[in-house]
Each structure stands twice: as structure tokens, then as C-alpha cells.
Amino acid sequence: MIGCTRSQCMISPSKSLHVENTSISISSKSIVHCNAGALRQPTATMPILHIVLFEFKPSTTHAQVEDVCKRMVGLAEKCVHPTSQKPYMKSHGGGRDNSPEGHQGGFSHGFICEFQNTEDRKYYLEKDPAHLEFVASLDGIIQNARVVDFEPGVF
């Protein structure tokens, strides 16, 4: 069980969210935010969320941007676990920025994928041939990239 230190909310193994005597069912792929306070350290293996932001070079064409984005999202199927030979990303997605806040800093596209554990992320970053080939293909297209990884609730 993962819970807020102030007991206003918690996620139970049954995938129910309990907030002040209210129970809400969530799916196994939901991301739950709790603003009640700092969360406790997890007791079980937590998923890793991997966020990638791209700023494309000004010379990059719309067709190149679409190609990169489709290939980035396609990694979820192309990246297979070395033992199971099956895709190992738990969830994935991405798209063009549409935030009205104006804090993009040149980044126009964002992607997020979820790994079951740090070992899967390490394989993806260091050894997965599909991912390494994709990264190499970005030379000359991407001006800047940002990557942030985190375990939900670990601060």
C-alpha cells in the first residue's frame, strides 16, 4: 500500500483510491496525484516514468517531425525484452505541446513511457537496439532534448 503521510489519500493493492471516506476505482495504468503532503517511500518495486521533450532544429521539416514522433511512439512495440522477447513498456504516449502557459522554452513535443522497474529502463537506455538506433537517427534533427525520470510519489 502506498499512502500520503497525512492519510487523506492512499492507493491500495485493490487499485482503489480512498479520499476522506470516498472510494474511487482507478485502472492499473492511472497516474494518481496526491497534494496532501509528502508520500512515504514505496515498499514494492515502483514503475519508472520516463519523460522526453524535443526541440527540433528550425530547418526540420514538418514531415521529419511527424516521422520522428511516429517512430518515437512506435518504440513501445519495437523495443522487446531480451528474455521474454515481448514489448516491455507498460504504457506510452506523446504529442505536440498545447500548453497555454508559455513555459515550453522551445520544446514542442513531449513523450512519456512507463517501465516496470529500473532494470527495464537501464536495458532501454543502454542496450535496446531499437532505442539506440532511434537515438542515433536524431542527429541533425533535434536541437535540444530534455529527459526526466521519476518514480510516482518518491520525492
From TrEMBL:
Residues in Stress-response A/B barrel domain copies: 48-150
Highest taxon in the source lineage: Eukaryota
InterPro entries attached to this UniProt entry: Dabb (IPR013097), Dimeric_a/b-barrel (IPR011008), HS1/DABB1-like (IPR044662)
Chain segments annotated as transmembrane: none
Gene3D superfamilies: 3.30.70.100
SUPFAM superfamilies associated with the record: Dimeric alpha+beta barrel
Self-association state and partner proteins as the record states: Homodimer.
Protein name: Stress-response A/B barrel domain-containing protein
Organism: Cladosporium halotolerans
Lineage: Eukaryota, Fungi, Dikarya, Ascomycota, Pezizomycotina
